[in-house]
Amino acid sequence: MKYSIGAGSATPPYEQLRVQVRDAVAAGALAAGAKLPTVRALAEELGLAVNTVARAYRELENDGVVETRGRAGTFIAPQGDPGQRQAQVAAREFVDRARRLGLDNEASLALVRAALNT
After folding, report:
1. Rounded to two decimals, what is the model's pTM?
2. Disulfide check for 60: which of 34, 51, 65, 118 has CB 3.0–4.6 Å away?
3. Is the pLDDT of residue 81 over 80?
């Protein structure tokens, strides 16, 4: 996911980033369990201070959009009702396992389609 910060915007940079991540999650572009870049890496990529990105991540965590797992990093939190959240987590686990097994997206989707048709 690419983020952009408008230097001339009246909106503070941390808020621009927060809104972009929130909107990407709402649109489904960032799924539950997706790992966000480290604060330092994203700050460097965007030309922002580390504290600016850290504030955006804190705000997102307070909003329930992301969850921080200590040294493991920051991840998109499951969204919606409990059943939806569990399905999001299961989908992320499936994708992670399929990738570890060397399956591409089409092969993974074919398996899901077959399972849905049973």
Report:
1. 0.72
2. 65
3. no
